[in-house]
Structures are given as structure tokens and as C-alpha cells.
Amino acid sequence: MWSFFSRDPTKDFPYDVGEPVPELEDRSVWTLHKGKKRGTQDEVSIFLFDVQKNSETLFDIAKASLKRLKTTRHPSLLHYLDSCETEKFLYIATEYVEPLSTHLECMRLEGQQKDLFLAWGVFQITRALSFLNNDGNMRHNNVCLYSVFVTLAGEWKLGGFEFLTTQGHETTNPIPIKILPALEIYDPPEKNDSVKLKSATKCSSDMWGLGCLIWEAFNGPLKNQPALKTVDNIPKQLCTLYCELVSANPASRPNPADIITRCRKLGGYFKNDLIDTMLFLEEIQIKDKAEKGKFFSSLSSHLDNFPENVCVHKILPQLLTAFHYGDAGSAVLAPMFKLGKLLEDPDYQKQIVPCVVKLFASNDRTTRSRLLQQLDQFIMHLQNSTVNDQIFPQVVNGFLDTNAIIREQTVKSIVHLASKLNYNNLNVEVLRHFARLQSKDDQGGIRTNTTVCLGKIAAHLHPQIRQKVLVSAFVRSTRDPFPPARQAGVLALAATQQYFLLSEVANRVLPALCPLTIDPEKQVRDAAFRTIRGFLGKLEKVSEDPSLKEGMEADVHTATPSLSNAAATWAGWAVTAVTAKFYRSHSDTTRVQHSTKSALSKPGSLEQPSSSSMSTTTSSVTSMTSLEHSESASDYDPEHWDMAAWGEIDSSGGTGGSAGSSSAQAAPGLAALDEDDWDNEEWGTLQEQPSAKADLVSPSETWNNSQWTDPIVNSANATFVRSTAGSRLEHRPAAHQNSNDSLGGWEDGEFEPIEENADENNASKMDELRRKREERKLQRQREMEARRSARAQGPMKLGTKIATAPPPF
């Protein structure tokens, strides 16, 4: 009847016992089982003692070991969680561990990783024994391979407290009798020698056990004591100490505290990168900011030599803690992202992504710069919604930053973000900023990299936006006074040729490339000749076989272009351009600006250095395979097109000046020519673009449509013609230039937000925009024809040569 009202004590034990773990059957009074905590399902280890199957003596030993484990705490001792006693069993729940013997058998570490792991483990057990012997005034009396356990983080924990004694309370023989026969092999030799027993110290028996543990760590389980004399597999750094530990004279065995002091010295066994790192992380809360910065900056180079489980379960949590609750700052980013690669995606989303989002909201420029530089290490783990809603709004502020380094790194970061951005963020916001940077930024390197980045992300743009923007942007770049920017524009046209209609190639691309054949810089001329020959070869093939036109233009209107069409062979040379490097401007590094000073002393060449200086400052410019200059069919052979690195325009000393620098040596009128007015007869009447320096806008200012108006460009595209009604000059704007066309072809109307899942309203809106474009094109053609007829019938234009009539016969 009383049993009916009694309470089952296991109901208060919040752990479920799982399957048993082998290795401890005859070497411990406990049996080890896997377990899980109810509710959270966290993994734990359950040490179970069967009361009914074991003797009363073993039960007393088990209860004594439970008491010691429960009341003794140290980082290198097995961590106690909970316990429960019933009529049948005695339960102890600890952190999840596995026997060291099992871990060593399954360990796949080799070389330096294995050596560091074993050294770190031996150090932890030595530290635990120093705590017990010196601070706790206790003897463990059971140090061996089967009393040590390994956690998920690779930490060695000392357990097996069945025979632990306190000094001053032992009997005549301080070494207890071990009831389990399998453990007698680890008894020190003085146990049966009363003479040597008198010289035993408080730590001599545990030091003998430490020597046995070291031997087993490098050789496997100990079969007999004479095997301890074999030291072939023990590291040379450890041999002297090992011989002292297994000495027959107990008085000659060192104290564990002395062992740590000796081996932590330079050249000692415990002096290595892993132990140094782990000890620093344990004391990181008391380190100053300078020490933390130095530590984190050097940590990344050591991580490759550390065991993976130690990195993931020990070092990474410490870094995250230092980031959230310490003053580690941006220095912790590099090792944190490197270790994040070892995580599974769910763990990455849970641990690393919140840190990334928090860091992008930081106002510290150093932090933002490091994030942008390391974007490629974590972008693949970010969800599209996270990028668009939380990260991109912070990144886009970098386009307006007054610091050139931040602007440049923001431009480069779009290459990694483009595939995850939605329609509005990529086709509207990004292109707005790209248009402004390419036309107004005062840094030539940033203008160059904007062109390179646009070519890299072309495949991700909406087909209609892509068809409008690419040619206009790249043609504008070919007029830039900075030589690398012109070269980038030429190579970008070549690398994205599959997105151009053949009519665009003939009417806009080739006319824009031809003036570059007389460019002052040879690299630009070479790229222009090569690209012109390629485009001419493409047009010639279509002329010979018109059926190829459809294949050549297959990717123009496709959202996900592929190279499985007729143009694939011709475009093979440009496929790998998306992996090319960016131009390295002077803002990338903090070097002395002596090259800038020398450039400023030459008024004629601030933005456009001479050919000789170009060859030295852009020594890393993309090397392009030279083509045969014969008129044979091989000129158009795709195998001869080696433009894989069109964006690889590195310069160690080039500087970018103002976009409208008066030192530009481009032909008058070329920089002001709009790509829609390819009328050779009017080139001589265009006003030369005046000098102007782009204004830097602080991130705090609000951008509106009025700020997208560039009066210089508008006036530059105006044409001066003589009125037919009189002799005065009339200033008439170019027919194609409207209020929205303030960026030389990058119209604001092209960046109106469009939902990604377009419905019928969006379709009708696109049709309306297409109809308006056709009307503007027809209007321009009519006005151009009217101007031609006016020139043919009206007064002669200024500067026109008078053809003298032949003398009469």
C-alpha cells in the first residue's frame, strides 16, 4: 500500500538514458550511456550504477565518487549536471563526453593537428592534477586512459573519482587497493615496497599515472608495465619529463605545477599555438584592447593547424562571446568568418548571421570596410530576404560616403550581392548610384571599378534594363579621361557582347570604339582594335549567313542567359571575365602619395599619363593575346580571343582625378558626344565639355530627382547651328536630350521600381514605356533629317570650307 503512494524519483531526473557506450565495462564501477535532456534534447552523458547486480562495497565506492564529483569543480574536471538514486540504479548526468580510448581510436587527425591536440590534452590533465594535489590536498589514484574523457570541443576531462583520497586521512598505505583487477596495472611500483613508500610525496602516485597516460596517448592501451620502457613514439620534447614520471623512485617524480612551468617555457612541450590560444581565450576578459587586437589579427593564420572540433566548439563560441559582450571590435571578424565555414547552414544562420547583420549597422568605418572586404566568405550563407531587408539598406550608404575607400569597396561588394538582390534594389537603386559614380566621382579608380562591376553583374540585370544601360554606360566609360577607365569600358563591351543587338553593335558600339584606335595609350588602342575586329567578325558572319542572327541575339532578352547558342563559340574568350580582378586604385592601400605629387607637377597629364608612365603604373594591366593582322578567316577565330581578364586592371601608383578634368587629352567633342547622335557631319560643331569637379555628398543628405540633373552634360550635348532666318547663332539643345536624360543615356525613367512578379499592369506599363521610346526615336530621326535638309539649303555653317569652282577653259 505504501508503494502505491511513494513517488518515483526518476520523474525528477530530467534526462533520458540512451544506448550504452563501450570501453568502461571492467575498468570502472560505472557504465556509460548516451543521454538527452528532456525538453531541449541537449546531449549529455549518463553514468549508471546497477545497485542490484553489484556488491555493497562497490556501491559505497560509487556513492563516494558521486560525492567527490558533485563537490569538486575545475575546468579540467568532468562537469557534473545532476544525479538521482533509486532502489535499482544510481544515475549521474554530466556534460556530453566519450572515453579517451574511444576518441583516440576514431581520431583522424594527423601531423601537426594531432601533435597539438595531444599536447593540449596532456596539459589539461596535468593542470587538473595540480589542482587536486596542490590546491585540493587530494590524490586521484586512478589516472589512466579510462579515467579521462573528451568533450565535443576536444577538451580532456579527468573523471574516475572512485579511488580519490584526501591526504591526512589515509591508512598506513596511502595507495588504495583497487577492487577492479584491470586497473592494477596502473599501480605505482612503490605500492608493494614499504621502503620506497616512505619517500612517496603527495603527488608521486598521480605522476606515475600521468606517465602511464602519456604512454597510452602515443602507443595505445597499456598491456604490461615493462612496456613503459619503450619511448620510440613519445615526442623528444617530452622524453625527459616522461622518464621522470615513470621513475622507480617516487621522490624523483616532479610536482604537476613544476611540470607546467617547465613545459610552458620557450621550446617546451606545452609551448605551442593551440595552448597559447586556448589560455588567452580563457583569460580574455582581463586582457586589454591592444592585446585582444593583436591576438585576433594573428589568430586566422593559426586556425588551419587546429583540430576542427576545437575550432567549432571551443574557439568560435569564445569569439562570439567576445564580440557580443566584449570590446573585440572588427578585429574578431576575420577568424570568426573563417571558422563559420566549418558550420552547417542551420548553425551558421543561428550563430553567425545575427553578428553580420549587427555589424553592417555599425557606423565605424573600419568595421564596415572589413565587412565589405570579407563579404565573399559569408554571402553564400545569407538568405535573400536578409540581404534585401537588413544588409543592402546599410551597404547602399557606402555609395555616398565621403571616404573614397568605402565607396570603392561598396562598388566591389555589389558583385557578391547582385545574385541575391531583388529587382528594385539591383535594377533601380544600384544602377542609380553606378550612374552617378561613373559620371561624377572624382576618383578615376572608382569610375573604373564601377564599369568593371557593371560588366560583372550584367547577367543578373533585368533584360530590358540591361539593354538600355550597358551600351550607354560602357560607351561613356570609353570617353573617360582616365586611361584605365577607357580600357575597362572597351573590355566590358567585349565581355558583354551577347547582350547587344546587332543593330546596336553597328550603330552605337563600333562608332564609339573607332576613336579609341588613336588613343594616346597603347593598351587602350590594343583593346579597341581587338574588340573592333571581334564585332566586325560577328557582323560579317551574320551577313554571310543571316540565319545566325537569331542565335547571336538569343541572350539579349533572356533573364538567365546561357552560352548554349550560336554566339557561344565567339563569346568564349569573354566568359571568364566575371572572375577578373578589379582595378587597384591608390585608395586601396595607405602608401605614400609621391606619385600623385609628381603627377600634379605636370599640368598636361593629371588624368592621362603618357605612354611611358602608363606602362609602369599599370604593369598589371590585363595581358591580351595578340591577334594576327592578316585578313584571313583566322582573324575572327574565337580561339584567338583571349579577353578573360578584362577587369584585371591593377595599378600601384595611378591616381584618378576629376571626371571633368581640363587636362583630358581626348579629342574635342568626343567626351560630350551622346551615343544616340552618331552624325559625322555634326561632330565639328559640338562644344567642348568644360572642366568641373564632382561634388561629394555626405551620406546624411537626402537624394532627390533634382540632384540627378547634370547641366554640364546637357549643355555639352547641345548643338550650335545657324538659324535660317538670320545671321545669328542659335543655341538649340540636342533633339534626343530630355529632362530625364541627365546622365548621358542612363535615364531616370529607366529606374522606376517594378515588382519582381509582374502582373498585367506591369506588362502594360512596360508596353507604354516601349511606345514612348519609339516615339522619341522617330522624333529624333525627323529632327535630324530636318537639320540635314536645312544645312543643304540654308546658309553655310561656320568653319565649312568653300569648294572653289574649277577655272573656265
- For the CA atoms, what is the radius of gyration? 39 Å
* SS-based class: alpha+beta
Number of strands: 12
| Beta-strand percentage range | 5-15%
Number of helices: 28
Q: Please estimate the helix content.
A: 40-55%
Placed side by side, the strands forming the largest sheet appear as 1-2-3-5-4
Q: What is the overall pLDDT average?
A: 75
Distance between the termini: 148 Å
Could you say which overall geometry the principal axes of the C-alpha atoms support? Answer: elongated
Assembly state of the chains shown: single chain
The largest pleated sheet is described as: 5 strands, antiparallel
Low-pLDDT regions: 1-6, 562-580, 587-745, 747-758, 796-809
Provide a short characterization of the protein structure:
The chain contains 28 helices and 12 strands. It is α+β, with helices and mostly antiparallel strands and 809 residues long. The chain has a 5-stranded antiparallel beta sheet with strand order 1-2-3-5-4, with helices on one face.
